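Most newcomers find our protein records easier to grasp once they have seen one. There is nothing in a record beyond a sequence line and a structure line. Getting from the letters to the tokens is the skill we practise here. An example says more than a description, so a record of this kind follows:
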Amino acid sequence: MDELLRIRGLTVRFYTYDGVVQALENVDLDINQKETFGLVGETGCGKTLTALSILRLIPPPGRIECGSICFNIDDENEPVDLLTISEDGIRAIRGSKISMVFQEPSAALNPVYTIGDQISEVILLHRRQELGQRALEAVNALLAETPGFISTLARPIWLMERKLYQQVIQAPSSLWLTIISRIFLVKRLLWRLKDEAQKITISVLGEVEIPDPQRLTRQYPHQLSGGMEQRAVIAMALACSPKFLIADEPTTSLDVTIQAQILELLNRLKVEWESSILYITHDLGVAAEICDRVGVMYAGSLCEIAKVDDLYANPLHPYTKALLAAVPKLGEEPHSIGGSVPDPLEPPPGCRFHPRCSSAMEKCREQVPLMRELAPGHFVACYMY
């Protein structure tokens, strides 16, 4: 399976008045094409921060100190390091090649714009050339019609439209086009771009199984249920057919029935759109259902990576074992993990899990264990092996 994303040595720090928060520490992660990779762990372990690092959206006072995130944009060119490209370059990738479904849909949607306008904005930004081509075809069809009284009067306007759409196709991001499109008359002539974007919006909303998508495009976020809001956010993320979708706990605030529908939807869309998914969750049951491989995070570092069946059948890291033991099972008493998550301002030396680990050795307190492959595709960072 070809590699889509490769993260090496990702380290993130937050420089606060209280001190330096060591949020992520030397994270190494590979995600393959057409697979769902799950990232699990306790709240605050760095799962969402890893996703935000991929998109270079670390909020201040955070800073990516070092590392590389190589993304395979297409099969013809070499992967690009998302941490070294320009701001314009990463902005072109966000929403088009890499999209993110945020944890709280009501916070991700703007309450003063309709759902249709918000999804159309993404399409107008990243698929402008395609919209120009569709609009040009519509204008050419009008010009090819048998001349009549109305078409004769409108013909000069259609010719002006055609010239503008040709410019959109040739240079969709040109500064000249951006400037003149703000002129009222030119803006009116480019109305077909927004019309075509609305058509694509309705189609994408239909893909995520929203009933009557045309009506929903005219509604505001507060008029939707939680499940419909989440579907709208997924539609927005999929509007430009991204190769890589990041889903940050998209079912946390939903009931079990809607949660199952969203998971089934993501599985189906991954197959149909041939995308890869980074699924972030603290629910091990959800990870088992949707993921192909799973990475376990603790206190800003990865401690185990394996295929989902291998991880659940043969967990190796003490933290992974403790997580699985804490999951409620029928007829068994769940076991809580002793101790507490370390303070990121003053993390313990060596393995960050050693203060809570019953198998900790002296070496665990002194040196950070490196990730080792103990079985094909099964990696663990622990001195017990």
Q: What stands out?
A: The radius of gyration is 25 Å. The longest strand covers residues 3-16. The mean pLDDT is 88. The longest helix spans residues 149-170.
